[in-house]
Write a structure and sequence with these properties.
The chain has one helix at residues 65-76, and strands at 2-3, 7-9, 15-20, 26-36, 42-51, 57-62, 81-91, 96-106. The chain is mainly beta. The chain has a 5-stranded mixed β-sheet with strand order 2-8-7-4-5. Strands 1-3-6 form a 3-stranded antiparallel β-sheet, with no helix packed on it.
Length: 111
């Protein structure tokens, strides 16, 4: 299982949180793209974690400095920023499962 909030604020350091859980020991590879509305440029993101059977883990996907700068500027201008992630979990037995997750970035909280 790969889950995450559909709408998230960027965490410190440009991270997005995703929860993951496997029924058996597995390796989770998250790959995806950051899409900023009004821009043709796409930025790639990835994260890889080893999961222990039955234990839920929070995976933090970090945006690159360039992607983070563009995403923050777009969110500040009230533009839509989407992160489309594809998670692939592969176990020891060779079985693989895939899941797609879309996250929309929100504006930071007012101080």
């Amino acid at each position: 299982k790969v889950r995450g909030r559909k709408k998230q604020r960027l965490r410190r350091g440009g991270k997005v949180r995703v929860r993951a859980k496997c029924s058996a020991d597995c390796r989770l590879a998250l790959r995806g793209k950051v899409r900023v509305a009004g821009s043709r440029k796409r930025f790639k993101v990835k994260a890889v974690r080893q999961l222990i059977a039955g234990k839920r883990v929070v995976v933090k996907v970090r945006l690159s400095k360039r992607a983070l700068r563009k995403a923050r500027a777009a969110v500040a201008q009230r533009k839509r920023v989407k992160i489309v992630l594809r998670g692939k979990a592969s176990g020891v037995a060779g079985k693989a499962a895939a899941k797609r997750l879309t996250i929309v970035l929100r504006r930071p909280a007012r101080r």
